[in-house]
Amino acid sequence: MMINIRYVLAARPSGAASEQHFRREELPVQQLEEGEVLIKVHYISLDPAMRGWMNAGTTYVKGVEIGAVMRAFGAGEVVLSKHPDYAIGQMVTGLLGVQHYAVEKGAYLTLVNTAEVPLSWYLGLLGMPGLTAYFGLLDKANPKPGETVLVSGAAGMVGSLVGQIAKIKGCKVAGIAGGPEKCAYLLEDLGWDIAIDYKHTPDMVARLQETLPEGINVFFDNVGGDILNAALTRLAIGCRIVICGAISQYNQSTPIGPSNYLKIVSARATLSGIIVFDYFGRANEAINDISTWVKEGKIKYREHIIPGIEQFPDSLNKLFTGEHQGKLLIQNS
Amino acid sequence: MMINIRYVLAARPSGAASEQHFRREELPVQQLEEGEVLIKVHYISLDPAMRGWMNAGTTYVKGVEIGAVMRAFGAGEVVLSKHPDYAIGQMVTGLLGVQHYAVEKGAYLTLVNTAEVPLSWYLGLLGMPGLTAYFGLLDKANPKPGETVLVSGAAGMVGSLVGQIAKIKGCKVAGIAGGPEKCAYLLEDLGWDIAIDYKHTPDMVARLQETLPEGINVFFDNVGGDILNAALTRLAIGCRIVICGAISQYNQSTPIGPSNYLKIVSARATLSGIIVFDYFGRANEAINDISTWVKEGKIKYREHIIPGIEQFPDSLNKLFTGEHQGKLLIQNS
Questions:
Q1: Helix, strand or coil for residue A30?
Q2: Of A69, A326, B50, B315, which sits 20 to 30 A from A125 (CA to CA)?
Q3: Measured distance CA(A99)–CA(B288) in Å, rounded
């Protein structure tokens, strides 16, 4: 009998999530029903959206129930299958949860090809975050060569990919990130044009005016709050604002709205969002392009892999404090 | 020698504009230069944008200088002309200012045809506000028959026209307005489907949920603040939000941002604004359609005409307190 170790949601946080909001459980792996697959989870993805899933109510997906396994994307190996499309030893991704073993309907899984790339990449560069960056930038904002693209949360998984794709498309790319190391990474490793360290920038409006006098043609926002509000003061005519997230706000009980939103009107700008689920049918476009760019050396990718599921409750908050460097993952032992 | 009576901007308000921010002046009408036209101003338009023009700095147009004539749209009659396109007795509109006589370059004036409609209509139904409503709804939001259109500031000049055009296009139309008289006007005189009196609605989110369970396909916002924020909770998938103004915010030194803006993401909605100046080249489309609809009895129009320029400083604020009914104008004696 196989034993599963899992983390369930024990309480809903009002601010930051921490150990007290999860409970570790050990219990036997359940029997498979017809159509189900048993997966040994190798990697658990830590994503900003998880904080929202811990709230009650529904946004674009339902919140996790108290007592249920904490929802998370994961990648792993098929160890038992009662579904004709999956065989033992195949690699899959899906919403596998924070646990060692997942039982999931075959219909909800995606087979992935690990012949040329590591399995973990399907949780980042070639997974949801990769698709989010690719379609959020190219489909929603459609940047033209020579245009100025500003990215917040620029050293994060999605942000760093957005800026790299924008560079490939011939744009001038500016990133906002927290701390000198992250800014050095953007400028030196990724070759971006401008990096702004928001932790050492007392007046973001003035700094944006100074560094981007031509204004912003595309703003890809992962952060919200004061940074979104400052960026709104620098919109060029016809700017496309793509809201991907608002990581500065997820832990706030009363989020800040962008008081400068009327600048969208005067700049003839548009604001919309990116929901990656809408692009699943087109996933291969992104996977093919990104894989090609990686092979050509045009895209760099960093992973921050934390060993052991026991680190999960402590690690989720790194996304919000910005302590991590690159895509944050738990690797199961 | 003709004497002009005019109101200049004397001081910049921090909150509401009132008498102390204007100064009445009497002085001789200036001589015409080549290319200029002298207009006897019959009607002065009072518009929400005027409050913004009283601020320092630049939005999409520059603020009025201290000591300069208060900027306002006006309609009047040519009484002298040094421009080949204008002859004495012709009727024109333009940024004529808060005064009895305006000297303006011919290039900045528009000839209007008053054979079939009153001159004053070119400041409302067939002027900027009419074009704003027409293009803001039809070009920016493109409503389909059967869709639900929500309008804030619904009994105002722009709002009431937006909703009437949406009814003509076969939409379900809901309006938010202040007070039972305005709501009765929307339901009984204009035949809208739903009217919500925000002054007597303690919980706007609940009220919108109750009255618009299907969600909003188009939101045309003249108001901003809490009403915008409440509307964001009721977006149907693919909602088009058109920001026309934020009259609840123009008198605030620290405007409120819409804290629910992430609902735009989950609803796959878009937010953009309407700047009527962008549509001047297409003005005749709007004037032709609106004129036809008026003749067919499909559009109703109300004017609130205040006699005498001396009423100007007191009257502007009616736009913000909502005391007026219909398009607010000053008629010069």
A1: coil
A2: A69
A3: 66
Closest-CA distance of chain B to residue A240, Å: 10
pLDDT digit string, tens, across residues B194-246: 999 999 999 999 999 999 999 999 999 999 999 999 999 999 999 999 999 98
Q: pTM of the entire structure? A: 0.89
Which portions of chain B are predicted below pLDDT 70? 58-60
**Same domain for A213 and A83:** no
| Identity of the residue numbered B157 | M
Q: Which residues of A touch B272 (CB under 8 A)?
A: 264-265, 268-271
Strand bridging mode B110-111 / B101-105: unpaired
Residue B149 CA to residue A97 CA, distance in Å, equals 40
- The whole-number pLDDT of residue A59 equals 64
Instruction: Tell me what pLDDT residue A60 has.
Output: 65
Quote the number of domains for chain A.
2
User: What is the DSSP secondary structure assignment for residue B253, as one 8-state letter?
Assistant: S
The domain of A114 spans 3-124+301-331
| Residues in chain A closer than 8 A to B262 (CB atoms) | 59, 224, 243, 246, 249, 255, 273
Q: Which letter does DSSP use for residue B63 in this model?
A: P
Are B275 and A262 a contacting pair at CB < 8 A?
A: no
Output the CA–CA distances (angstroms, integers) from residue B141 to A38, B101, B168, B177, B221, in the order listed.
Answer: 48, 39, 15, 21, 12
Choose, out of A259, A263, A274, A279, the residue to mutate when testing the contact with B (most B CBs < 10 Å). Answer: A259
> Residue A31 to residues A7, A104, A197: CA-CA distances in angstroms?
19, 11, 51
Q: Are B74 and B41 in contact (CB under 8 A)?
A: yes
C-alpha distances in Å from residue A78, one per residue of A35, A38, A86, A96, B322: 13, 6, 7, 12, 66
Q: How many CB pairs under 8 A join A and B?
A: 91
For residue B316 the two structure tokens come to 């502007």
Going by the DSSP 8-state scheme, the letter that residue B33 receives in this structure is: P
Asked if the C-beta of B232 comes within 8 angstroms of chain A's C-beta atoms, the answer is: no
Domain containing residue A323: CATH number: 3.90.180.10
A104 inside domain? yes
**Are B18 and B43 found together in one domain?**
yes
In the predicted structure, residue A248 carries a pLDDT above the cut 90: no
Per-residue model confidence (pLDDT) at position B319: 87
ipTM: 0.87
Beta strand A327-331 with A36-45 is: antiparallel
Query: Which alpha helices (DSSP H) does A13-54 contain, by range?
Result: 49-53
Concatenate the DSSP letters of all residues of A101-164 into one string: EEEEEGGG-EE---SSS-GGGGGTTTSHHHHHHHHIIIIII-PPTT-EEEEESTTSHHHHHHHH
Strand partners, B304: B328
State the amino acid at position A56 in one-letter form: A
Beta strands in B132-177, from DSSP E residues, in sequence order: 148-152, 172-177
Residues of B in contact with A57 (CB under 8 A): none
B297 domain residue, yes or no:
no
From A235, A262, A277, the end of a domain falls on: A277
Same structural domain for residues A184 and A244?
yes
Model confidence pLDDT, tens digit, residues A252-278:
777 789 999 999 999 999 999 999 989
B260 — contact with chain A (CB < 8 Å)? yes
Same domain, A110 and A136: no
Residue B116 falls inside a structural domain: yes
List all residues 6 or more positions away from B260 whose beta carbon is below 8 Å from its beta carbon: A257, B229, B232, B233
Taking CA atoms, what residue in B is nearest to A277? B266
